Amino acid sequence: MKGNIALRGQSICKSFNGETVLDDLSISVSRGELLAIIGPSGVGKTTLLKILNGLLEPERGDVYFMNRPLEFENDRDLEARRKMALLSQEPYPLLKSVWNNVAYPLKLRNKDDIEEKVADALEHVSLLDFSDRKASTLSSGELQRMAFARATVFEPDVLLLDEFTAHLDPYNISVLEDAVDWYLNEKNAAVVMVTHNLFQAERISEYTAFLFDGEIVERDRTEKIFDEPEDDRTQAFVNGEMVF
Amino acid sequence: MASDIVHVTLLSIFVSVSATLLASVMAVPLGTIMGLRKFRGKEVVKTMTYTLYGFPPVVAGLLIYLMLSRQGPLGSLNLLFTPTAMVLAQMVLVFPIVTGLTMSSVSEVAKDAKETAMTLGASRWQTAKTVLNEARIGVISAVMVGFGRAIAEVGAVIIVGGNIKWHTRVLTTAIVLETRRGNFEYALMLGAILLSVALLVFFVLKRYQDKGVKM
Q1: CB A37: neighbour CB atoms within 10 A?
Q2: 3 state DSSP class of B5
Q3: Hey, of B119, B130, B140, B208, which one would you mutate to test binding to chain A, going by the most A CBs within 10 A of its CB?
Q4: Each residue of B158-167: pLDDT tens digit?
Q5: Are strands A207-212 and A34-38 parallel, antiparallel or unpaired?
Q6: Which residues have C-beta within 8 Å of that of residue B210, sequence separation ≥ 6?
Q7: According to the model, what pLDDT value does residue A10 have?
Q8: Among all residues of chain A, which has the CA nearest to that of B116?
Q9: CA-CA to A94 of 20 to 30 Å: which in A171, A216, B126, B164?
Q10: Best residue in A92, A114, A144 to probe B by mutation, most B CBs within 10 Å?
Q11: Tell me, what's the ipTM?
Q12: Which residues are A68's β-sheet partners?
């Protein structure tokens, strides 16, 4: 059902080597919603995604998955992690064929109908003909499409995308954006997309949040953030006037 | 003479394969944990492990000899001058090599493979298995190098084994003996057999390197 909060970060603080990266940050995303997080490089967007995914423990604050707080000990909350996926900017191909890479998360979960599910996932990113290829031989665009299929084949409720189309050509960007759109609508998933490509945020996200100085400065509908932002810093960033 | 050759060859294979397997059973998990985990004193442990690559075989032999001799702590086991003592001596030499090289191979792929496995829902155990599988080329190379060290070793096995005919004589100690006797042709033939054994074992290990572990 659209509208239920799927993932929520509450008062998150994180610092590295004494330098504060995230400072009392709160954020949430609901099912059926695509939230873009924009902000300059190095403001902690990737750190935030890793915390939301349970990979990185915050110093303070909590992450709630389906209203249940995430445990960061004891196998890092395997049950919750198995309902989320994080797609990074540079996906790592396991030493296997494309088919085996996509089947990998299903095998971890002892799922049935692996053949059918893998074929389906590969078809959505136009990679069905590449099943037998070694993942390490794919181009960066093909690799990211394979990684998308691998991240969605087990139908996670939350999909976290970290600059997932950075440095890709327009064809691959288009295939991946279509795939995100399909996944969002078909599975009623919650999608959080970190990007510094403002055009992409404007193009595909329903909501946008501006991350700056360790906090969410503003979160609203995407057109509002881009056309009538309330905060001067947001205005400066979306207009390309912010000097770092 | 033919039965002599068969015996020393089979004993060589038995001693070195056993030593490599037993050392690897402990060294591969230890190297994997050391490659995956951050802990206080890791650099010191790494340096010590790498230093032990050059552990002199005669010193290893001497230490095992002292432990297994009648006055030694394990003297009551009556293992001195037995193939078991030779396996123990070779294990001491193989263990640091397999541990250190496994640790290096795992460290190389650890960050990316670990993170990928975890983001796709792997448990701790599944993550370690995935990382180990990703590092398998390096890990099996580590086992190969360990076996190479064991099968070519002479100093330690001659001390703890005694080079006793039909009992503890292996290819390397037989080569030493035949060279001293001036039987150079025979010694060279034993050398060729030693190389063939190494080639055969490396060929078997290479197949595992290519296949990987089923997840």
Answers
A1: 28
A2: helix
A3: B119
A4: 999 999 999 9
A5: parallel
A6: none
A7: 95
A8: A92
A9: A171
A10: A92
A11: 0.88
A12: A65
- Assess contact for A208 and A177: CB atoms under 8 A: no
| pLDDT tens digit sequence for B26-74 | 999 999 999 988 888 889 999 999 999 999 999 999 999 999 999 999 9
**Phi/psi of residue B125, each to 5°?**
-65, -45
Identify the CATH number of the domain defined by range B2-36+50-210. 1.10.3720.10
**Which residues have a Cβ under 8 Å from the Cβ of B214 and sit 6 or more positions away?**
none
Q: Provide the 8-state DSSP code for A125.
A: T
Interface test with B, best of A104, A153, A157, A164 (most B CBs within 10 A): A104
CB atoms closer than 10 angstroms to residue B173? 24
**Is A92's Cβ below 8 Å from some Cβ in B?**
yes
Residues sharing a CB contact under 8 Å with residue A196, sequence separation 6 or more, in sequence order = A38, A39, A40, A41, A45, A163
Q: Do A94 and B212 touch (CB under 8 A)?
A: no
Q: Are A131 and A140 in contact (CB under 8 A)?
A: no
DSSP A64-123: EETTEEPPSSHHHHHHHHTTEEEE-SSPPPPSSBHHHHHHHHHHHTT-S-HHHHHHHHHH
Angle at A107 between CA A105 and CA A113, to 5 degrees: 105
Instruction: Calculate the average pLDDT of chain B.
Output: 92
Of A52 and A1, more confident: A52
> What is the rounded distance in angstroms from the CA atom of residue A201 to the CA atom of residue A203?
5
Block residue for tokens 């006793």: B164
Which whole number is the average pLDDT over A212-216?
Answer: 92
The encoded tokens of residue B169 equal 């004589």
Of A76, A96, A150, the CB nearest to B120: A150
Q: Which residues of A touch B212 (CB under 8 A)?
A: 95-96
Instruction: Kindly report the backbone phi and psi dihedral angles of residue B109, in degrees, each rounded to the nearest multiple of 5, phi listed first.
Output: -105, -10
- Domains of chain A, each with CATH number or no CATH: 5-238 (3.40.50.300)
Beta bridge partners of A192: A35, A160
Among candidates A49, A38, A47, which has minimal Cα distance to A199?
Answer: A38
**Pick from A85, A108, A150: CB nearest B126:** A108
Q: Using CB atoms and an 8 Å cut-off, which of residues 139-178 of chain A contact chain B? A: 150-151, 154
